[in-house]
Amino acid sequence: MAKYSRLHGSVGLISLANPPVNALSSVVRHAISEKVAKAFRDPEVTCVVICGENGVFCGGADIREFASTMRGPPLVPMIDAIEEGEKPVVAAIEGVAFGGGLELALGCHYRIAHYKARVGLPEVTLGLLPAAGGTQRLPRLTGVAPALQLITTGRHVAAPEALKLGIVDQVTEQNTVEVAVQFAKSVVGQALHNRRLSLRQLSCPPDGLFEETMAQIKQRARGAVAPIACVQAVKAAATLPFKAGMDKERDLMATLFNSGQAKALQYSFFAQRSVAKWNLPNGAHSGISKARAVHRAAVIGLGTMGRGIVVSLVRAGISVIAMETNEKQLHTGKKMVIAILEKDAQKHNAAPRADLVHFTERLSDLSNVDLVIEAVYEDMVLKKDIFKQLSMICKPDAFLCTNTSALNVDELAAVTGRPEMVVGMHFFAPAHVMKLLEVVYGQHSSPEAVATAMQLGKRLGKVSVAVGNCPGFVGNRMMKLYVEQAHFLLEEGATPEQVDEALEEFGFAMGIFKVSDLSGLDVGWRVRKEAGLTGAGVDWKEPPRRRQGRRYSPLADLLCEKGHLGQKTSRGWYLYEKPGGRDPKPDQGLHSFLVEYRSKYGLKARRIDKDEVLERCLFSLINEGFCILDDGIASGPEDVDVIYVHGYGWPRHRGGPMFYADMVGLSKVLERLEFYHQAHPDVPYLKPSPLLRKLVRNGSPPIREWREFLKRPHSHL
Ligand SMILES: CCC/C=C/C(=O)SCCNC(=O)CCNC(=O)[C@H](O)C(C)(C)COP(=O)([O-])OP(=O)([O-])OC[C@H]1O[C@@H](n2cnc3c(N)ncnc32)[C@H](O)[C@@H]1OP(=O)([O-])[O-]
Q1: Structurally, what CATH architecture does the domain formed by 2-257 represent?
Q2: What is the model's pTM?
């Protein structure tokens, strides 16, 4: 929809009206074309202003329409008609002008923006390019280099920066539409030729700009094709006349539009929004559960996790009590938190927010906070002791949260006098950088507690996903099997380099062995000791390489025993030039160790190809994802996918593990899992999940229909 009115007798005002973001659906495009033609026809109208209702100019093309055949007038001729018009057209930009919204504004002769508005061409994040003239007009407005950067990254620009770049002509703190109307009246009668971007000549881009950008993108894009097409389109703007550049833009878009990557990225966009609408098996959901405001929070433990959480809370303007009993750790933690906050302040040219943090060694200082996040190391006895004390010290309506990455939230809740106020808030390291937050609800967690943790996550700028309570929750439960498979592949003949190369070619930022070296091999070692898989708790009556009745690889434990803990000790799965070194090199010592290990256990090394690496690592993880859905630990495949994309480096252009399974084909995933399960009967989790079988039996429905096959939650409310 778009509304039309006449202001001051001579100004035609067209308001886009398609809440919530005035996306350019076919109806809206039709209405704009019609209203623009009407304004141009009306002899009383001397100028036109285009704006959006409800404080938003336009969020771009309607992404929901991309899944079906496009109907209605296309954007390109509509924008061309505006630009070609003989009456000045001014875009009044409030809120956002993104994608097709900015392209519409670029077709206007002038752009006025509210100082809080943002503009950008984020199509690349959806696997596309700005194909309504954006790749051809923006470089003609800003010069090639800034346009290339904006289009290939999809970065949003705030109005003041947009003004500097020349994207907008004026920024105002007043009513943008009123300012635009006055402006439009003031330019009536002035020549428009120069204001038509399609007619502008481009100045020569710096030498080597496209080659350099292309090389950087190929390195960073991890197989994503849209950024490459964006470079090609902008290059066309710099080298071809406007019309030929538009043809190139259209052709490139045609190859992207139906690609699997575009589908995956658009799925990811909606998945990220759908997880905010959480629902629990007991019937509670985001629509009916109210969050409580958190004014004062506390964080217990100032290790890496605790520090990151403190910084995140302060950045959101929440006052924090940071508590740590170890004096040295308190001192180091305090120094590091303040250093990060000072760096933030420098970046934003503002005063540091360190006044919001109070550091203490006393738990009793937490008596008056609204919410506590415990972030001590993974020791159930220690955590229980803390929760018992918190239950007595904190005010009765304070929420008690744990940052555990795998331990039982119900067990912790049970030692408090308020199990309904206990939830897990599982941050990912470093917590002030990583986007993901798993909000873990226990058996007794109240809807209010879940809503408060989810709301707090949003305030901290996190992508929060509500998940059920089980060992490892969603992310780590799936990850465990992926890591195990990688270790088995080494036993069978692969090297860490081969496994990592296959995973990196798939699109992971880092292969699993490099990640393990980075985070430290001792992290998993501690967890395996707790689980009785290695160390004192092991039942040595079992045959070697078997634990708790199934196949087990002690490879990582053996490296830990040798003190090879990864980057910090300069040796792990790779070799580093010094402790703390970042550059992994193949380690001949490790290769010899693998040869000796195989010979000791009578294992014959065989050649393992990339397909097997991917299938064994990824399909086992995916199979566990189906089990998680079947158990109701995640409420839908989108939850699993959002967790993997935002917390585990799964390539976004592959949508997430469950989306990937859908793309590969569920029957193929099932068939390969059956094959591997037969080949490795001592690895029970390779047995295909009942849900996967059920979906295949039902004709492998597309991912958006999977929820219909999940067990329905029963409301206990
Ligand atoms: C073909 C020619 C080339 C052009 C290509 C393009 O323009 S491609 C497009 C390029 N543009 C982009 O990539 C911009 C994508 N959008 C955004 O970045 C943000 O939504 C925002 C900044 C506009 C608003 O942020 P916020 O935190 O205030 O709100 P929120 O994010 O929660 O969204 C609210 C609701 O609106 C929905 N929705 C939003 N946009 C679209 C859309 N374009 N379409 C459809 N729906 C859209 C969203 O799903 C959600 O729906 P729900 O869950 O309530 O049913």
Answers
A1: Alpha-Beta Complex (3.90)
A2: 0.94
The residue type at 164 = K
**3-class state of residue 419 by DSSP:** helix
CA of 238 from ligand 1 middle (Å) equals 30
- CATH 3.90.226.10 residue ranges for the chain: 2-257
Atom 34 in ligand 1: residue holding the nearest Cα? 20
H/E run at residue 506: helix 496-506
Residue with the bigger pLDDT between 514 and 219: it is 514
Question: How far apart are the CA of 273 and the centre of ligand 1, in A?
Answer: 10
Buried b (16+ CB within 10 A) or exposed e, 553-567: bbbbbebbeeebbbb
**Contact predicate 113/170, CB 8 Å:** yes
Among the listed ranges 134-138, 520-524, 626-630, which one has the minimum average pLDDT value? Answer: 520-524
Cβ of residue 612 lying under 6 Å from some atom of ligand 1: no
59 CA from centroid of ligand 1 (Å) = 5
Residues of the chain with CATH 3.40.50.720: 296-471
Q: Which residues pair with 97 in a beta bridge?
A: 58, 119
> Where on the phi/psi map is residue 160: left (φ > 0), alpha (ψ -120 to 50), or beta?
alpha
In the predicted model, is pLDDT for residue 715 greater than 80? no
312-369 pLDDT, tens digit per residue, is: 999 999 999 999 999 999 999 999 999 999 999 998 888 878 899 999 999 999 999 9
610-709: CATH topology is N-(1-d-carboxylethyl)-l-norvaline Dehydrogenase; domain 2 (1.10.1040)
Residue with CA at minimum distance from ligand 1 atom 30:
273
Buried b (16+ CB within 10 A) or exposed e, 685-712: bbebbebbeebbeeebeebeebeeebee
Tokens representing residue 384 in the block: 């229980």
CATH, domain 296-471, list 3.40.50.720, 3.40.50.261, 3.65.10.10, 3.40.630.30: 3.40.50.720
Residue located nearest, by CA, to atom 50 of ligand 1: 273
CA distance 368 to 388: 17
ipTM for the predicted complex: 0.98
List where CATH 1.10.1040.10 sits in the chain: 494-500+510-600, 610-709
Residue whose CA is closest, atom 49 of ligand 1? 270
Q: Residue range 116-145: average pLDDT?
A: 98
Residue 118 Cα: closest atom of ligand 1? 22
With cut-offs at 50, 70 and 90, classify the pLDDT of residue 169: very high
Q: What is the CATH number of domain 494-500+510-600?
A: 1.10.1040.10
126 lines ligand 1 (CB under 6 A): yes
**Of 18, 21, 463, which is best to mutate to test ligand 1, by the most ligand atoms within 8 angstroms of its C-beta?**
21
Query: Which residues are catalytic, by number?
Result: 103, 123
Confidence of residue 527 (pLDDT cuts 50, 70, 90): confident
Residue 621 in contact with residue 660, Cβ under 8 Å?
no
- Residue range 642-653, pLDDT digits in tens: 999 999 999 999
> Ligand 1: which atom is nearest the Cα of residue 126?
13
Residue identifier of the C-alpha nearest atom 14 of ligand 1: 59
pLDDT at 214 over 50: yes
Residue 713 has a pLDDT of 55
Q: How confident is the model at residue 716 (pLDDT cuts 50, 70, 90)?
A: very low
98 lines ligand 1 (CB under 6 A): yes
